[in-house]
C-alpha cells in the first residue's frame, strides 16, 4: 500500500509506504502540537441541527490524520466519518443559522462550524469548554494547512483507491486484486488485457504472480505513464532525453505562441518545475519537469495573467457585468425551501456582488426575510444585515449591492433603516461620495468597501440636495414583486385584456435616504427612458420580459444599458430554483443578471466562468468594441482519471467531450468527440473541433465531459467554463470541476488550442 506525496523542498516526486506516512502523521502530534494530540484522543461535543436537536457525539481524529470519526455515546450506534480534505472553512462563534438560534444557551467561544465543499450541509458543533473548541479549531486549521502544503492533493485521493485494492491485507496484490483496482480507477479490462497490465516480466521481478513493495511502485508508474505528453516532448527534444534551453524556447514560441522575453521565461520554467538538479545545471528540462509544467497553473487553459484584477476599475458601474444572486436567502426551491443566512455567506464567498433581500413585516416589530406568499421559512432582517456586513469584503473589496424587495410597513421600514445604519456603520453608503449632486454613476474603484442599497426611493437624488423630500410618500410596489409578475404572466397567457392594479405602499424617509445610486423604478418604454430616466435609476425585468425587449428592440436595449443599470431575474414560474442562460442577457449589456446560486448547472457554470477572471472580484468590464471574427480550433487529446459517476463497482465511464460556445446568437454552437468505451482513467481521442466565432469578446467556452449512454440521457462527469478572451493557446490542461463548481483533482483534459483570424 502506497501513497504518493509531493515534497516541495526537494521539488521531486517520491513514494513512501503508508506505514511511513502514519509515522509522519503521528510525529505531527508528538512535535508539541497539543491540539492534534487532543484530537487524536477524542472529545465529546454537541452536534446541533436545530434549537431542539442537540445531541452529544464522540469526535476523534483517526491515526491517519486525514479522517474525523464520530458516533453517538450510546453503544451499538453506527459511526460516521468525513475527510479533512472535504472541509473548506472553519467558522468560529455563532456564524450559522443553527448556532445563532441557540446563542442564548451556548456562548460563542464554545461554538464553531465546519463548512464542507460543494453543497453538503454544515456541521455545527458546541464544545464542552472554550479551550476544547479552540483546540479543535486550531487543530483543524493545522490539518488543512498541512494538506494544502503537500501540494498535488490528488495524490492523497489516489491512496484511497490503492489502499482498498489489497483485499486480503497480505501486503501483495494478486491478479484479481489488480483487475479490481483497475475497475475502481475507471478502467474496464478483460482477463487478457489485465494480464498485460500485470507485467510479470517487468514489474513482477520476484516471479511470484503478485506485486509487492517496489514492484507495486513500478506498476503504478506504468499505469500513470503519459504517452500523449511524451509524444509532444520527443517531437521537440533533439536527443529524445531532455529539452535543452533552445528546445524549450522553440516549444514555447511555436506551440504555446508565447512572446516577450522567451529566453528568460524558459530559465524560470526550468528553475520552477525541473526536479533534477543535474538537468538544471545543464539549463535543460527532463520529461518529468515538462509534465509538471504542463500540469501547473502556467500550463492550464486559463491565462494566469487574467486571474488577478487586470481590468480598468475606474469606469461607471453601468460599464460592468456584476455577479448577482436571486432570492439569495433560499437554499432550495422557491415554494417550501429553507431560508438561511448561509445563502448570503455562500454567495458572497463566491464573489457575488449583488444579493437580494425580500423584506416583510415580522413579529415584535422586527422585519423578516422570506419568499412572500410561500411556505419558505423566515429569517430576521437584522441577521441578514449582520451576515452581509461580516462577509461582504472577504473575497472582493469592490462594492456590494443590497437589492431590497420592500413589502414592509413604514414602521418596520424605519427599523430596517436603523439596523442598516447601526450594523453596517461606515460601510453603508448613505450619501453621494462627495456630498454633491452627481452627474453620473461612480466606479467600482470609487466605491471600494461600500454597501449600496437598491430599493424604492422618495423622489429623486436631486431632491435630496434641495430639502424637498417629504417624510413619507406613496409609491408603487417595485417590479421585483414576483407574485405580481406571475399574475401578469398568467393574465397575458389567458389573453385577458385589462390593466393590472398595482398595490400601493408608503415609503419611510429614513430608508429612502439610504438609496443613493440605485433607485428601483418601474420600466415604461425605451422611448420614455431615453427622455426621462436618470442615470441612478434601475429597472428590473423577468427573464421573459427581457427576452421580449431584446427581440423587439435589441439596439435600444443595448443603448439603455450603456447609460444605466438593468437587473434581470428568473421567472416566478421557476419554482424549482432552476436558472435561465445568462449569456443572452449579457449579450445585450444587462449588468445585474441574477441567478439562483444554490442550483448547479449550465447557468451557474457560465456565471462562474465569466467571473473567474479579474480577480474573481464580481465585476467584469463590458467589451467596448468589437474585433474581427476568429476560428477556434480545439484538439481534444486525452483525459486523466475522470471520476466515476455510478457507485456500482462494475460501472465504468464511456467518456465523450462536448465543447459549447455561448455568445451572440450567431456564435451559439456545440460539437462532440466520439466516446471511448470503458475507460475513464486515461481515454485518448485526438479529435479536432472547429468553431467560427464572430463576436469573440462575448464568447464563453464550456467543456463538458459526459458518460455516454445509448439508451438514456448521458451522465454528467465534469466541466470547465471560461471566457474565450482568457484562453491560453498551445498544449494545455483543463482541470475539471464538479457539477457544483468545486475542483475534482486529478481529473483533467489535455488539449491543443489554436485561435486564428477568419480568412
Automatic annotation (TrEMBL):
Domain named PI-PLC Y-box is located at: 511-626
**Any idea where this protein resides?**
Cytoplasm; Endoplasmic reticulum; Membrane; Nucleus
- What Gene Ontology terms describe where this protein resides (cellular component)? endoplasmic reticulum; nucleus; plasma membrane
Membrane topology field: Peripheral membrane protein
Question: For this protein, what reaction is catalysed?
Answer: a 1,2-diacyl-sn-glycero-3-phospho-(1D-myo-inositol-4,5-bisphosphate) + H2O = 1D-myo-inositol 1,4,5-trisphosphate + a 1,2-diacyl-sn-glycerol + H(+); a 1,2-diacyl-sn-glycero-3-phospho-(1D-myo-inositol) + H2O = 1D-myo-inositol 1-phosphate + a 1,2-diacyl-sn-glycerol + H(+)
The protein's matches in SMART domains, at most eight in alphabetical order, are given as: C2, PH, PLCXc, PLCYc
Biological processes, Gene Ontology terms:
intracellular signal transduction; lipid catabolic process
Q: Which residues form the EF-hand domain?
A: 164-188
Query: Where is each C2 domain found?
Result: 613-738
Cofactor dependence is on:
Ca(2+)
Q: What is this protein called?
A: Phosphoinositide phospholipase C
Query: In which organism is this protein found?
Result: Sparus aurata
Upper taxonomic lineage: Eukaryota, Metazoa, Chordata, Craniata, Vertebrata
